[in-house]
Design brief:
Blueprint (H helix, E strand, L loop, with lengths): L5 E7 L6 H17 L4 E3 L27 H13 L2 E11 L2 E9 L5 E6 L11 H4 L19 E3 L4 E4 L8 H9 L4 E6 L2 E2 L1 H26 L2 E6 L1 E4 L7 E4 L3 E3 L5 E4 L5 E7 L2 H9 L24
Parallel strand pairs: 1-2, 2-3, 7-8, 8-10
Antiparallel strand pairs: 1-15, 3-4, 4-5, 6-7, 9-12, 10-13, 11-12, 13-14
Length: 306
């Protein structure tokens, strides 16, 4: 039997220097989203801290906390009170010297369903994530499935897949998570413009970001929702980053159900899983996959034999 329609909420915020104030603001936004009907609420990547990866600084590991820990436990209490699912992306301290860019998934009864750990870790100017984050490892979910680092979470309202920021550029991540049964792919994100590049490349970069994720929705016949941060975040010795927002929710046809601009926003959209079945019947991409022909995808590069 198909899942009944469910309502998504995305929180797009500017992050304050004070962590407590940032988490307070996120809680207010979650309450607002729930009051507007949201049943599953997704926060942005590393939601409770400024984007600290602009430089490499060992003291910034102090920003991390365990899961469960103070922030996740606070969100568990809030989820219980409001009866909503909350996706909580934070800097996770898993053990001494072991840190992840993670998202805890809290069900509507406050239970911690599990943690997704970002699989693809970038390293670019002002995005020095390889210094801070260990990629999520590949592990055995159960005996009936091949090992994978990707996950789905069967929440009270829908089966959700969570992927994080740089993961959103990889069709393999979207396809695998969809094949595992996700009805919606949630992408907590922190992506922005280098100020010197914005005039020439800014519009194209934001459009490419939206297009890549809408393509995942179409190719897999699922809903896709991306929650990005906004605002300029300075960093001494650099030009800083201007996070461009444009959070959105789209349906399996790639049609926009809700979209923000570059200001703080709360997005709400109703998603009907019956549309997944309808889309896949009419665009049977999963039916026509040639799984017998895809072994080369496991190679890093397939060049000329010469």
């Amino acid at each position: 039997m198909a899942t009944p329609p469910f309502t998504l909420g995305l929180i797009q915020q500017a992050v304050q220097r004070d962590a407590a104030a940032t988490v307070d603001a996120a809680e207010r936004a979650i309450r607002d989203a729930a009051a507007r009907g949201a049943q599953i609420v997704c926060l942005q990547e590393l939601f409770n801290a400024p984007y600290f990866c602009k430089v490499t600084d060992a003291e910034r590991f102090d920003l991390a906390e365990p899961i469960p820990g103070p922030t996740v436990e606070r969100m568990q209490r809030l989820a219980t009170e409001l009866g909503v699912v909350i996706v909580v992306p934070i800097f996770e301290r898993r053990g001494p010297g072991l840190y992840h860019n993670s998202a805890a998934v809290v069900d509507a009864d406050g239970s911690l369903l599990g943690v997704y750990r970002k699989m693809h870790i970038p390293d670019d100017p002002l995005y020095h994530e390889k210094y801070y984050f260990t990629p999520g490892e590949i592990y055995q979910h159960d005996e009936t499935r091949p090992p994978s680092g990707f996950r789905v979470f069967r929440t009270r309202f829908a089966t959700i897949g969570v992927l994080i920021c740089w993961d959103q550029w990889y069709p393999e991540a979207a396809r695998i998570t969809s094949l595992m049964g996700a009805e919606v792919l949630l992408y907590p994100t922190a992506i922005g413009w280098h100020p010197k590049e914005k005039e020439e490349w800014g519009a194209a970069q934001a459009d490419a970001w939206r297009t890549a994720q809408r393509a995942h929705a179409i190719a897999n016949g699922v809903f896709v929702a991306a929650a990005n941060r906004v605002g300029f975040e300075p960093e001494p010795g650099t030009d800083g980053i201007e996070f461009f927002g444009h959070s959105f929710i789209c349906d399996p046809f790639g049609r926009m159900l809700a979209e923000a601009d570059t200001e703080p926003a709360i997005l709400i959209a109703k998603c009907d899983p019956a549309l997944i079945e309808y889309t896949r019947r009419n665009w049977p991409f999963l039916r026509d996959r040639r799984i017998d022909a895809y072994a080369p995808i496991l190679q890093r590069y397939i060049g000329s034999p010469d």
